[in-house]
Amino acid sequence: MKFEIRPKDKCPCGSGKEYRKCHSPKRDRSDNNIWKGPGHNQIIYFGHKDPLTGIWFDKSRKGEFKLLKGNDRVPVARFFCVDDTILACKAIVRYLSVSVDEGIIKYTGSLEVQKGIQIPFPVLIGCIDAKTVEAFGANLSGRPVSYERGDWVIFIGEDENPIARIKKQPRWLRYLRASGFLVESETAGEINFSLSTKAKGFNLFTLALPFGEIEIPHPQVSVTEHQATCQLDIEKENVSWDLVLHQDIFSERKRSRKDSKVYIGYKQGKNIIFDTFDKSIRKHVSNPIKIRLGISIPGLSATIGKFAESLERTIRTISENGGFRFDEKGNRILEADFRDHVLTVLKSIGYYAMAEPTRKKGFVDILLKKDDSEGIIEFKVWGRRRYKDVIKQVLDYGTPWTTEYATVMINPNRDPVTDKFIENARKSPGLKNITKVEHQLPTLNKLISCHYLPDWDKHIAITHFILNIAKL
Predict the structure, then answer these.
(1) DSSP E strands: which ranges in 115-172?
(2) What SS3 class is residue 355?
(3) 444, 465 in Cβ contact below 8 A?
(4) What is the pTM (predicted TM-score) of this model?
């Protein structure tokens, strides 16, 4: 079966546009167009930071790409080729589970592969960095099954390494790629797996399935002791006319896809619930995909959360012992006075802190520095100038090296404003989710929002405090 992209098909670049209106060679004939299609030469690009003298690769269906640098061989990626008959298979993911216990995050799952063909099939199970995996195990219905660690490319519709046939038979390339463990089986059955690694502020797990039909259940994510948010991406296979291979394509942090189906998860009780994903019904997907399950746990980061903890203790202390006197008339509250009081406290506990330093688009209310960490805090009074844009403002002051963001909203009204704050937050840049922290106090409400900033390819968390001074 020869795979084709027709003029009215969606463009393989992931834009969602029709191919004829996007990267068709009738629109763009340049060498930069890697989706130019039949009638044009196929090119293989290998990227590396140093000058190279050649390339070495296996010609069989399974092997490794290596770049030659003098007498040295530099590994780029390992590969597994599987012909088109793999698309007759169906994979049913029985369950996916993630749990955190004593600093270790564990990813487990079970999937059944139904097939009537006599070829080995691959499944890729990985995380944000396969080198950090502390333990991995897999079996096929209780029997041993082989697996290998590496940066993998699964080529779909190939009988051999595509580089070995690309000159004699140019055609579209279909593939899945991920860093992790390639589990390979000759027979159908149920694959059970378990992957453990150290929990971090941002954790990511992947599951690449090169099959024609796939069913996916609602993931079970349990983070009982931590505030967390989650994002589930269902990515389509990669499709391109030229083959581009370099180490950066295996960085899950740097990856950018426009054609993913995304489900946002939020904490409800002890578990994560995904919007528009019925827990009782599995999602049905056609054609090969990669599942990405990203979990943000700000409290486990080496830097994120630490400034917020100090800030929260400071605000609580002020509200408890009356160290700062708010004027009873809300229109006379001076946020700068409260900010300066907080600044004094933060300085007293060892932070290098300053008020209103120049930063990009304006003046930061409080800039904190300690070692390699940097925190930005923005103060507002509810109803005053730009109070609805407080999240955008604090993000505008950040840089790729900022590790902590926080906002403090002073609410002079007797009625709570938490729901209205959340409504405003939904318009902020890169918002993925915003959640209330459990056990809210009448005087102090706490929320955490998670954002993805594409310019820096970075996931960040912002802690928000709403101080209800009418309740003091």
Answers:
(1) 121-127, 133-140, 143-144, 146-156
(2) strand
(3) yes
(4) 0.72
